Amino acid sequence: MARRGPRAPITAGAALLTAGGAVLGWAAWAGAGYGVLALGLLLTGFGVSFVLPALAAAVIGAAPEGTAGSAGGVLNAARQTGATLGVAAMGALTGLGAPAGPAAALLLPAVLCAAAGGWFARVSSR
Fold it and tell me: For the segment 30-76, what is each residue's pLDDT rounded down to a tens digit?
């Protein structure tokens, strides 16, 4: 990240999160075994490990002088709010019943990560 900036890790992480969510959604729909679930969880875990540090560096780096602490705090507040809303939305979708509900609940983050990654790649290339 020090050589290339935060764009590559964030877009790669978003792609991994998208793939992980898609694999998990498919596994829920198809009733796949533990191997498929492990693959989805690995992709998701690696995606998070790419995105979060790079996103923190990007936000703090873009903050005006003397406001890095506030920028980091706003990022964490937004991340926690998003996680809370995401859990609520996924819980509501899971209530639709098996297998459509759990599959939709796991595909929702995949779609959102794909949209966020595409948006970030487009905005950060300007």
Answer: 999 999 999 999 999 999 999 999 999 999 999 999 999 999 999 99
Residue with tokens 């705090």: 73
d(CA 126, CA 110): 25
Both tokens of 100, joined, read 């459509």
Identify the burial level of 8 via C-beta atoms within 10 angstroms of its C-beta, where 0-12 means exposed, 13-18 middle and 19 or more buried. Answer: middle
List helix spans (H) across 31-67.
34-62
**How many Cβ atoms are within 10 Å of 33's Cβ, its own excluded?**
9
Pick from 42, 45, 74, 47: which is nearest to 58 by CA? 74
Choose among 46, 40, 21, 5: nearest CA to 106: 21
Q: What is the pLDDT of residue 85?
A: 96
Entry pTM? 0.90
CB 124 within 8 A of CB 7: yes
- The CA-atom distances, in angstroms, between 29 and each of 18, 32, 51, 79, 116 are 16, 8, 27, 28, 24
